[in-house]
């Protein structure tokens, strides 16, 4: 009963929003790349490098804005770097992503050690953080104020960007070009589009969104960089994008679902449950979500195929009758 009460507090729902923030950024990052026809599996490593960059730049320059700009720049560069090898050098995108992820995991430790003398975290240097915001009107509302108000700036930016990405994809020329190239690059090329350029732009934007998720972890949620602090959130973001079926709103809802699993894990850990079991919960939910999504998509595909076959049979019968009448 005590555990159940922990799930019914405003703090629990506040935690869901907080832990869902990097997942929303990661899912939007995956969505933009996938709309452009590329599966970006370097989101997690991009988050790591941007998180590290933001912390180090803020620590040595004491300029939070410069740190944010540098972190975002690293994200964009990594996205384009992925695009250069996959699109222009025609390498396999999965193998390219694996290579970049492997390189990044070692490079992050090397850079961290070079600037801080520590291979585990940036605690040896004092970095700056992005503050939280109390929303004036909402914070005075009982219950709702405790859940919605007081979050980090990154959190509100994440939810705003969900709407921005929706407008970008479905109402703006750039989004329509990205979708056109992703669906059929040959057809897009035939009407004057440059698929290579559009895909590089999509991957640059993908890297930008991933960088925001990384910097939230090291400059918003915490004010320190820890090696592997993303804990696979980039890959969970890819899963959230898949469950959202390429829709920003759907990706956000899926991210909140996975965030809920994280929040549940936090509550169970506080109540002395086995740490191994608790840590596995978010990943188990991610796998279960993908399985359910894949099964649903397979059912939809089979229904569509059966419908198309019935329509083809109907047309064939109609054509046969018309041909017989014509011979008579």
Automatic annotation (TrEMBL):
CDD domains documented for this protein: TM_PBP1_transp_TpRbsC_like
GO molecular function, one term: transmembrane transporter activity
Name the record gives this protein: ABC transporter permease
Keywords: Cell membrane, Membrane, Transmembrane, Transmembrane helix
Entry superkingdom: Bacteria
Statement: the UniProt record of this protein carries the keyword Cell wall biogenesis/degradation: no
Bilayer-spanning residue ranges: 12-33, 40-58, 64-87, 94-115, 153-170, 200-219, 277-296
Keyword RNA-binding in record: no
Xref: InterPro entries: ABC_transp_permease
Bilayer topology annotation: Multi-pass membrane protein
Biased composition (Basic and acidic residues): 309-319
Family matches, as Pfam families: BPD_transp_2 (PF02653)
Region annotated Disordered, chain positions: 309-328
């Amino acid at each position: 009963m005590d555990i159940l009460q922990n799930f019914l507090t405003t703090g629990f729902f506040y935690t869901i929003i907080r832990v869902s923030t990097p997942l929303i950024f990661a899912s939007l990052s995956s969505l933009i790349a996938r709309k452009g026809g590329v599966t970006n599996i370097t989101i997690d490593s991009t988050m790591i490098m941007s998180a590290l960059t933001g912390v180090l730049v803020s620590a040595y320059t004491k300029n939070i804005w410069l740190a944010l700009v540098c972190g975002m720049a690293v994200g964009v560069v990594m996205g384009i770097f992925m695009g250069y090898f996959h699109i222009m050098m025609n390498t396999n995108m999965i193998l390219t992503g694996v290579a970049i992820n492997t390189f990044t995991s070692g490079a992050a430790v090397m850079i961290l050690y070079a600037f801080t003398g520590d291979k585990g975290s940036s605690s040896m240097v004092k970095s700056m953080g992005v503050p939280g915001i109390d929303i004036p009107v909402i914070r005075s509302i009982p219950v709702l104020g405790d859940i919605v108000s007081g979050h980090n700036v990154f959190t509100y930016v994440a939810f705003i960007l969900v709407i921005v990405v929706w407008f970008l994809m479905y109402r703006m020329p750039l989004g329509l070009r990205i979708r056109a190239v992703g669906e059929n690059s040959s057809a897009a090329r035939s009407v004057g589009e440059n698929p290579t350029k559009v895909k590089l732009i999509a991957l640059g934007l993908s890297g930008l969104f991933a960088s925001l998720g990384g910097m939230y972890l090291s400059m918003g949620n915490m004010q320190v960089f820890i090696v592997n602090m993303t804990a696979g959130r980039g890959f969970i973001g890819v899963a959230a994008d898949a469950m959202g079926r390429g829709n920003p709103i759907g990706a956000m809802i899926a991210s909140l679902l996975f965030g809920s699993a994280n929040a549940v894990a936090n509550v169970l850990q506080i109540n002395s449950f086995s740490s191994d079991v608790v840590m596995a919960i978010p990943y188990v939910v991610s796998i279960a979500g993908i399985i359910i999504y894949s099964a649903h998509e397979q059912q939809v595909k089979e229904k569509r195929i059966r419908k198309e076959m019935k329509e083809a049979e109907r047309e064939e019968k109609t054509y046969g009758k018309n041909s017989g009448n014509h011979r008579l």
